[in-house]
Amino acid sequence: MNKPTTTTFVGWGRSNGSVSRHHVLHSDSELSALYTGEDSVIARGLGRAYGDAAQSGGGVVIDCTQFSEIIDLDLSLGRIRVQGGCSFEEMLRYVVVRGWFVPVTPGTSFVTVGGAIAADVHGKNHHRDGSIANYIEELVLVSPDGTHLLSRTSDPDLFWATCGGMGMTGVIVEATLQLVPIESAYVTVDTDRTNDLDSCMELLSSGDERYRYSVAWVDGRMKGRHLGRSVITSGDHAKVADLTVQQRHAPLAYDPKQLLRVPLTPPISMVNNLTLLGFNELWYRRSPEHREGETQTINTFFYPLDMLGGWNRLYGPRGFTQYQFVIPFGEEEVVRYALERLQQAGCPSSLVVLKRFGAADAAPMSFPIAGWTLALDIPLGSSSLAVALDDLDRHVANAGGRVYLAKDGRVRPELVRTMYPRLGEFVAQCQRVDPKGKIASDLSRRIGLRD
Length: 451
Fold this sequence. Notes:
Layout: E1 5-9, E2 18-24, H1 31-35, E3 41-44, E4 60-63, E5 70-74, E6 79-83, H2 88-95, E7 100-101, H3 113-118, H4 126-129, E8 136-143, E9 146-150, H5 156-162, E10 171-178, E11 180-181, E12 186-194, H6 197-206, E13 213-218, E14 230-237, H7 245-248, E15 260-261, H8 273-286, E16 290-297, H9 298-302, E17 308-309, E18 320-328, H10 333-344, E19 351-357, E20 371-379, H11 385-398, E21 402-403, H12 416-419, H13 423-433, H14 442-447
């Protein structure tokens, strides 16, 4: 077993760092020694959790990115079996050219399969297809008490506790996923520009049945009657008949490219009131009022930020937080309040995304519930931000909503049980497979996830 080195780990928001021993996992047989050691442990993938979920100050962080083999692909059934450290980016390179796509994807392809399951990731199609857990046929989990082969019918309580459990039940070393068939590596996209939040929500709601994928970019800078003006992009996988003559020559060609990379962290944040004002105005004005049938590549539609490597460095040395919450249908005023509250606090949001969720799955700690989800990237540094977010937390909890733990780095522990009322079921499964509490992250300690 390799000798761990000491490393400072941070989330994608580049804040709340902590020092841990860094162990690169090459074999699942190494895990038993780590579990019987003196230090706490937590698994880590590609570090795209925004907060402190994949770090364990004073403990051992298990780097799973070298444990990334694609084990098998059944082309007839569209089932792929991979090691937990395999990234979506690696998987897509392998399956798209063979006529398959992942059933659910977050907004970046640079996440591992194990990390995606641990966060029970959702995508632009949750209103139709739900979260990634619905497409996991089997997974292999190595916990302090041993190895578990899990499915929705084999040990379902532990399966569902693992999905969305933020790594607290063990290390996902292998998973089998059901893929979806595609004819091309393109998406047929419709675009609509709306003048305010009400029209945005109305258009998103009316598109639930028509579109598999749908998302709204919201201009977080607007106030008054134009509060929440948006650009909505909706679509589905393009059929060969939808493509141009040139695209039809190689409809499944897939070659994602990173166009630029931010090499260094600037001394100050490049995301501020002035730059946001210009960017938001340009983005809104350059978008068509209505356009149908545009073909976009998979990466353009699903992963636009992946084309700018290290984009999180643009926020400077203080970093940023992504605040994402979901509230049930009927509580739409919380979305409006969130936009207004952050404006009042003088906290500009560089990216605001609004989506609709379908029904929740059976995982007690899974984030999505039927309703609206709003995600905001907010630069750190304003003295009023913490107060504003604490206020929003209370509004979200009172409305029956919750914040996304995969994005969180600051929610108060007393609200977690309100936001996640099935927390006790989850804790019972953690205690069952890890009775000595060897698995711990900065997140779990901060919010009392095992208490």
